[in-house]
Amino acid sequence: MISKDTILKKLATLLLHSIFWTVVLFGYTYFFGYNTEDINYVFSFSLFLMPVTIGTTYTVTDILIPKYLIKERYALFLLYCIYTLIVSAFFIVISFFYGLIFLSSLKYEGMAPMTRSPFFLFVAVYFVVFIASALNLAQHNYKSTTANQALKNKILEAQLKLKEQELNYLKMQIHPHFLFNTLNTLYGFALKKSEDTPEMILKLSNLLDYLLYQSDKPLVQLQDEINHIEDYVTLEKMRFRDVLDISIDFQNINKNIQVAPMLFIPFVENSFKHGQIIDQKLSIHMSLTCKDHEIYFSIKNSILPGNSNDHKGIGLSNIKKRLALAYKEHHLLEIAENENWHIVKLYLNTKNTTAYES
């Protein structure tokens, strides 16, 4: 069953074509009526020429262009154009004799001036064919462009969904990893029956609240991410006590900057997990500063000379993938080591970055 929309489209197309050919008919009447007052002769002649024009036009627009030109079958297109030209020229000549024999009774002087030469008939007919073909090609080009754009949008949408799924999968890995590290710390305090255990549980509660309710957002305030880091560091301070030598320098924090959640904490976690105690001290130094929409984050932890540690793990591996997906070319991550320090530097430009997370 034909849908209502299809019927309406066909009616609209029929109406447009009817209007076009009506305009052509009156255009012929005006063109061939130049320098004559015999309107009946001119209109009859124009009416007789219309089937030739219509047939030639639809042959080109409905057969030659879509079947040969659009499909780049140029040799056949050229060949059939020649055939069409010969056949149409034959009927145009017949139109000339129609005007001479039937409309002017074989009196050449009785013909309208613009119909006395087949040349003007060829010009009129092929001009209409040219205009109709140009409109047809423009329509094909528009449909092709629209279809290509729709296909591109579908591809981009599919890529976006894949990125969202991959990022969600990476988050699912990060969450247990983070929770496992934190619960290990809390477990150690519980074994020691430390008086700081209630405060530690409170800090852990804050961390879990951020983890469960904030990290699923596409973007969070940079200050929230910093608060999350500070809560984590507070927990680690309770665990390491006097062994920990840590300095934190957060400056020029732009309250309007938003970042993807859980970006910095894996580096902080790895510094505590893989940092090495030298002279009874685990040294960790981190800094974060903002300049316009740019973020500069760095963290380093002490390591024993000659005891290289690659800091490999689920958290770091995932954060590299998340940075590549969410920030693309708008970030720079550098990880290096010297004899005494493992150093991480992260640069983010948040101005033109699209977060793909959901």
From TrEMBL:
Transmembrane portions of the chain: 12-33, 39-65, 77-99, 119-138
Domain Signal transduction histidine kinase internal region: 166-242
Pfam families per UniProt: His_kinase
Keywords recorded for this protein, A-Z: Kinase, Membrane, Transferase, Transmembrane, Transmembrane helix
Keyword ATP-binding listed: no
Gene3D superfamilies: Histidine kinase-like ATPase, C-terminal domain
Example of a GO MF term: kinase activity
Listed name of the protein: Histidine kinase
